[in-house]
Amino acid sequence: MKFRATSILSTALAAVVGFGFAATAAMAQGKRYPMHPASAQLLRTAKANGVKVLIDPGKKHCPPKLFGFATRNGYLVVCYRNHTMIDGKRGLSKNEALELADTIRHELVHIVQYCAYGGNMILPQNENYFISYAQDLGMPILSYGRHQWATEAEARVLAHELTEAQIADLLIKSCRN
Ligand SMILES: [Zn+2]
User: Fold this and answer.
1) Neighbour order of strands in the sheet with 66-70
2) Which end of the chain has fewer CB within 10 Å, C or N?
3) Ligand 1 center to residue 24 CA distance, Å?
4) pLDDT digits (tens, 9 = 90+) for 57-96
5) Distance from residue 30's CA to the centre of ligand 1 (Å)
């Protein structure tokens, strides 16, 4: 699950250190949900590997400040509209597209945790490192129950450190039926 951080640190940091694609690249022209081409490609790969992707399924599932979540039975819910309200302007800005891309990578790490690790960490030996690093990245740790800290921290750190292609690879290797 990914909540909006209480500070802008994570977005600012992401803008500085960069993601797996250039922020200036054109948006993919999805009909209803424009996003970065790398994000769109990653969602296509996820679907092709059995992930059920739902975008903005309604306010009950996407209350304010929730960016998205994944479920044990393979659903990836992306709260698209909540990403478009970060900057307070219409449409998806460059920063919002970066945050959306991060959400998609983050939730797919959770999908891998579910499909191959019983909902536990992929790299449990790194628990303390991930929790510390995730807080440096602005993870709103108190938004989560203590039992979720490790898996949330891992999702946040791997989403930050891995490219779309690497997440796709992880997903294909771990979750292929
Ligand atoms: Zn999460």
Assistant:
1) 2-3, 66-70, 75-78, 52-55
2) C
3) 27
4) 999 999 999 999 999 999 999 999 999 998 888 889 999 9
5) 25
